[in-house]
Amino acid sequence: MLSRRSAVREYLHGAYWVLPALGILFGLGAGALLSVIPVTPGSLIDKMIFQGTAGDARGVLIVVSATMITTTGIVFSLTVLSLQIASSQFSVRLLRTFLRDVPNQVVLAIFVCTFAYATGGLLTVGEHAGGGQFVPKVAVTGSLALAFISIGALIFFLHHLVHSIQIDTIMEGVQRRTLALVDDLFPDPDTPESDQPTPPKPPTGAVPLLAPKSGYLQTVDVDDLAELTSATGHSVQLVVFVGDYVTAGSSVGWCWHRGRPDNAADPDVLQRILRHVHIGFERTLQQDIRFGLRQMVDIALRALSPAINDPYTGVQVVHHVSAVEAVLASRAIHDDVRHDRSGAMLVWLPYPGFATYLHVGCSQIRRYGAREPMVLAALLQLLCAVAQNCVDPTHRRAVTTEIDLILRVAERELADESDRAMVTGAAACAKEMVQQPGALAPPPSAFGQVAAVTAALDTTSEDP
After folding, report:
1. Of 2, 388, 387, 399, which Cα lies nearest the Cα of 185?
2. Using CA atoms, how far apart are residues 91 and 298, in angstroms rounded to an integer?
3. What H or E segment, with its residue span, contains residue 257?
4. pLDDT tens digits, residue range 269-311?
């Protein structure tokens, strides 16, 4: 699990100023170091580096610094434009993804490093009072090298920006990060014998853990909490999920002392425990799988809205969501429970069950795409892929519930008989998968355009 150090690393990774600030420090330090390197007149190195006078050197440094500050402004403007496109076309919850884009931060760091290097060099180039002149040839040559590096960085930035705002690239990135979180939180495969432990009832005298401020529960340092409660003889049971919004003063869990007859917790221990329960103004993808699903679902909802009306993008989102839901179906999704050597419960962190994750991925897309049969068919294809990996009977019941909801929507919203026939046929395939655990899912043609054409031909051939 993540610790406070990981939370700090997560913040620094998303802070857009860190790498540029390091670039400025590096540029100033490199310029100061290279300006004192002596070069023997007439040597091979002396013939290969800058050959101009002090005036020429100042002119070069001025041109490089002026060009870099202009280019930095262009890069910043293009970055803001990409953020605007992401928020208006896809989802405002994707802005954090663009801000965490390391290539953008590296390119900006190269530009400000070159600017700082060239501007700092202007302080060293000049003529002495006695009539001599000082030209740090190595440092001036370095500014020219940085200028060419910056040109290459600009070309790379334009290439990266064009690809980063493509819908497939965005969804693939969210899917990859969400799957990595699934592997981190639920690495064990599900088995028919794996039972979800029942949360204990807090004993009489247990003290509620009150949220110190309003916000989203971002992370919980379970390892640190287990160490703390083991050393102090306490037990902690959280009652809210990571990603839930809590208000200041509301209960996020319970704490009690296992060694006292009244189970009363120490006030100072309560404060130490709350330091490991991180509440912030935004959701993060550190321990919140639902947030990864929410980012993908938001893209589908924006695409299916009347303002954009792009059903195929909604279908693409369903395909990416199915990759996450299918993996979740194969994992043992249990609460994170820690015990000491004697078996006493130290920490209990609840997680939403599989049915909740499946509902997050399907429910709103089902409602927004209720009048588009291809979206409903894509959801049924998702449920087929999920059913193929289901081992737990409760997981299969959750899949059956979602299939029935889609059928209900199709009967109510689809006026054309061929559209209803396509969705009904896809639902039959999905239900067959639920009833046959371990069977292979049917090919995609059973849910896409081939199935739509087949259903249309069948219904028209039956007409008198």
Report:
1. 2
2. 6
3. strand 251-257
4. 999 999 999 999 889 888 999 999 999 999 999 999 988 889 9
